[in-house]
Specification:
The complex is a heterodimer. Chain A has helices at residues 54-57, 91-100, 119-132, 155-161, 176-187, 200-203, 212-217, 224-241, 253-264, 275-279, 301-313, 328-331, 348-357, 363-370, 372-378; strands spanning 3-12, 17-26, 29-34, 61-63, 68-71, 73-78, 103-108, 136-139, 166-167, 193-195, 208-209, 221-222, 245-247, 269-273, 318-319, 393-403, 422-432, 435-439. Chain A is globular, with a radius of gyration of 21 Å. Chain A is an alpha/beta fold. In chain A, the strands form four sheets. In chain A, strands 1, 2, 3, 4, 5, 16, 17 and 18 form an eight-stranded mixed sheet that branches. The longest helix of chain A has 18 residues, at 224-241. In chain A, helix 3 runs parallel beside helix 4, helix 8 runs parallel beside helix 9 and helix 9 runs parallel beside helix 11 (301-313). Chain A is built from 15 helices and 18 strands. Chain B is globular and about 55 Å long. In chain B, helix 7 (187-198) links the parallel strand 5 (176-180) and strand 6 (202-206). Chain B has a five-stranded parallel sheet. In chain B, helix 2 crosses helix 6 (155-169), helix 2 (34-48) packs across helix 12 and helix 6 (155-169) packs across helix 7. Chain B is built from 13 helices and nine strands. The chains are: A alpha/beta, B alpha/beta.
């Protein structure tokens, strides 16, 4: 069905647009943007796949007064757990969670079982996404076979099967020589390597940030240097090989300094952080809640300040969720025994908007890091509001208050440290290729 | 005579403590305040004499059940808790990992829920994971006592150390306490640092810098690179066990070098004050961190620590378990 978004505040970082106008979607594409688009153009061409939402019964006109319409959010770093760990998440549940959180596209990491290191797994993920997913899903292929860090995966075949980037996320590639070859090889296919920066000897089986808090809590610490030495190494290798490097989940002030310096020298490096790294510090670990355990770990207030500054000055290009579903079996245990990781698809947007409400980022900057930049890094023709493009849209109510309640999540897992947080600003409608995949029942 | 004492004590020790600790549990020294520490030490003082009687038992906690849930081997602490419970007429049940469903893979939370279903009055837990007692305390309604969790805290050890020093020195404030050795992996050190500083003492640490955890200075301690540096001014020297397996972890080159730099022997002790107290939480590596002559010498209060452990744990059980529980009252 054609949809007409009336009187919304359109924010499009690619064109720098931030003004009130209408946006028309016909047959899944944006066909007109501007003021005063007549309502007669909406409501036609219903699709049998679509459920009949109340607002669609009103002729496909969506009153966006007081709301913000942005390109659909793109999460360039999540774990959908399928195949292999369907008890934690599936492509179906993960993409539903994504839609509810305002995301229209997901790039999912390769640490499934079996690992996404070959065509069969990539194609399986893409097929599942077509059949069961409500958002777009872009698989990320493994750099090395079975993520073992021993020999290269068949990168050419992965590219052909449809991966959009390469990463051994969750496992750092400790062999620098092999990473060098991977970067050179991947460059030939135009694929970016997404690096999980963690020097394992320094991390030394730590479970939280090393510092005063780990000392008080008697938990084994992971020093900032465990991340920073690998960021520096990977930058040096990116410089050596000319490959494009993307640093995943940046958590420390030192990593930011290194990336900032590398960018200034023109090295092809981009970087992301995740909402928990600008929303929480290692003090949250007090009480030993395993939902405050992730890798890299929550750092100090100084790091949080640096991360926010890095988002502001562009050192950090993107905000990703690192959505890592884990169930009670992995999380309702002793802190040091618990699995790493938290889910983020249904909390990332409001946590990012906190930075806007607190004046750290403009709305334009925040939207850019959730849309245009991830699209650019992954080479996707998405993330902008433009006539002729697929209509991937997120409608945001900036002022809508919400208490985060994990039991309401669409994700199969509940491992979030943000339970009970009061936030302001949520996605109220999510559209993928002109199809409504989520609507806030309290509004529509 | 014993009957007189018994009557005397039963006059002073009622079944229900007149004051209690603020929390349901004792998870660490960090979270309790000075008045609570004083309450425990004062209560322990009145209990200490019971252990010297011919019949070492008072009826204070009769009908109560204390479960000692030990996920790590322990001789001293487990026995001490068991004796403390029994001298108060509580029933003490001991569970160690090899004898429970833990080996079958039951989670701590499930174990806790099953134990709680049998209606105990107190759980004493020792666990190799820091924070395990907190997990238990969160899911259980009965008091949980931390008998040592990972490298986090060992609060009853610190309380018995405070008790011993106060007993010998008549005070805690103003004393200089030296703690020597592996602070990084030591829950005893953490609890004692919190405890002695709260009570107004100064805490000085010595040990290889590799075994000083990050940001330790922020706990209010003074670090010394050399043992000799802190010996002359110390009122108390507490030697920590050096775990022999740390030798391979890159924390120090060899036990030989460790012992030479941080071992306490008669030669080093010559520089100490004449009334210095030597402490060790045990178990000792004789000849490594402490020489046998020092451990068994006149300054050593190592066995007094063990004796006092029973009194302190009796006090704690009494303060946490004595009288009706909140839950019992609310169900009336």
């Amino acid at each position: 069905m054609n949809l007409l978004f009336k009187n919304g505040r359109l924010v499009d970082p690619a064109s720098g647009t931030d003004e009130r106008m209408d946006l028309l979607v016909e047959e899944g594409k944006i066909t007109a943007m501007g003021r005063g688009i007549p309502e007669s153009r909406s409501g036609k061409g219903s699709s049998p796949k679509e459920p009949s939402f109340p607002f669609l019964l009103r002729g496909g006109v969506i009153d966006c007064t007081g709301k913000v319409l942005v390109p659909g959010c793109i999460d360039m770093h999540c774990h959908l757990r399928e195949p292999g760990f369907e008890y934690k998440e599936t492509i179906e549940s993960g993409s539903s969670a994504a839609a509810a959180g305002g995301y229209t596209s997901l790039a999912c990491m390769a640490n499934t079982y079996p690992v996404n290191d070959n065509r069969a797994v990539t194609e399986y993920i893409l097929r599942k996404a077509r059949e069961k997913g409500c958002t777009r899903v872009f698989p990320i292929g493994a750099v090395t076979k079975e993520l073992k860090g021993e020999s290269l995966a068949e990168i050419g075949e992965l590219k052909d099967a449809g991966v959009v980037a390469l990463s051994d996320d969750g496992r750092p590639l400790m062999n620098s020589g092999l990473l060098r070859r991977a970067m050179e090889y991947a460059r030939g296919f135009g694929l970016t390597i997404i690096s999980h920066c963690e020097e394992l000897h320094l991390a030394n089986q730590g479970v939280m940030n090393e510092g005063f808090m780990s000392t008080l809590l008697g938990l084994r610490g992971i020093p900032s240097a465990a991340e920073e030495v690998m960021v520096l190494r990977d930058i040096a290798l990116a410089e050596l090989t000319g490959a494009s490097l993307h640093v995943a989940h940046v958590s420390t002030a030192g990593s930011l300094r290194a990336i900032r310096e590398a960018k200034a020298r023109g090295i092809k490096v981009s970087a992301e952080t995740a909402p928990h790294y600008f929303s929480l510090t290692d003090e949250a670990v007090e009480g030993y809640d395993p939902n405050t355990k992730m890798n890299p770990p929550l750092r100090t207030a100084k790091d949080v300040t640096a991360i926010i500054a890095g988002l502001k000055d562009g050192t950090l290009d993107a905000i990703a969720t690192d959505h890592a579903p884990q169930t009670a079996i992995e999380k309702d245990v002793e802190f040091d025994q618990a699995a790493f990781g938290i889910i983020g698809l249904e909390t990332a947007l409001p946590l990012t908007l906190r930075l806007v409400h607190e004046g750290h980022l403009t709305l334009m900057e925040a939207v850019e890091k959730l849309t245009l930049q991830p699209a650019r890094i992954l080479g996707l023709d998405l993330g902008r509001l433009k006539v002729g493009m697929d209509a991937d849209l997120t409608l945001i109510d900036l002022e809508r208050p919400k208490t985060i309640e994990v039991s309401q999540f669409k994700s199969k897992s509940r491992n979030s440290p943000f339970q009970g947080w009061k936030v302001k600003g949520v996605a109220v409608l999510t559209v993928v290729a002109g199809r409504v995949v989520y609507h806030d029942p309290g509004i529509f | 005579m014993a009957n007189d004492l018994d009557r005397a004590v039963s006059r002073t020790i009622s079944d229900k403590p007149s004051r209690r600790l603020a929390g349901k549990d004792l998870l660490g020294i960090q979270k309790i305040d000075v008045s609570e520490i004083e309450l425990i030490l004062d209560t322990a003082e009145s209990f200490k004499e019971i252990s010297n009687r011919e019949i070492k038992k008072v009826p204070t906690l009769r009908g109560k059940t204390v479960i000692n849930l030990f996920y790590e081997p322990s001789t001293r602490t487990r026995t001490s808790f068991e004796i403390a419970a029994k001298r108060l007429s509580a029933d003490a049940i001991n569970i160690s990992t090899s004898a429970s469903s833990v080996t079958k893979g039951e989670t701590l939370i499930d174990t806790a829920k099953n134990l709680e279903a049998m209606n105990p009055d107190c759980i004493v837990i020792r666990h190799s994971s820091s924070g395990a007692p907190h997990l238990l305390a969160r899911v259980m309604h009965v008091p949980v006592i931390n008998a040592g969790d990972g490298a986090h805290e060992h609060p009853t050890q610190a309380l018995l150390d405070l008790f011993t020093v106060r007993e010998k020195k008549g005070k805690l404030a103003g004393l200089k306490i030296a703690i020597v050795g592996d602070i990084l992996h030591s829950r005893v050190a953490r609890s004692n640092i919190h405890g002695f500083i709260k009570m107004g003492a100064e805490v000085h640490l010595a040990g290889p810098r590799t075994m000083m955890p990050a940001g330790i200075e922020r706990m209010g301690i003074h670090w010394h690179a050399s043992l000799l540096e802190l010996i002359p001014d110390a009122d108390v020297i507490m030697m920590l066990r050096i775990q022999l397996e740390r030798q391979g972890g890159g924390f120090f080159p060899t036990l030989r070098e460790y012992s030479r730099l941080f071992g306490l022997n008669l030669e080093v002790l010559k520089a100490a004050k004449p009334d210095v107290l030597i402490m060790h939480p045990g178990p000792m590596n004789r000849g490594v961190e402490i020489s046998p002559e020092v451990a068994d010498g006149p300054y050593s209060v190592i066995l007094d620590q063990v004796t006092n452990g029973v009194a302190v744990r009796m006090a704690l059980l009494y303060l946490l378990v004595g009288g009706e529980r909140e839950a019992d009252r609310s169900s009336l």
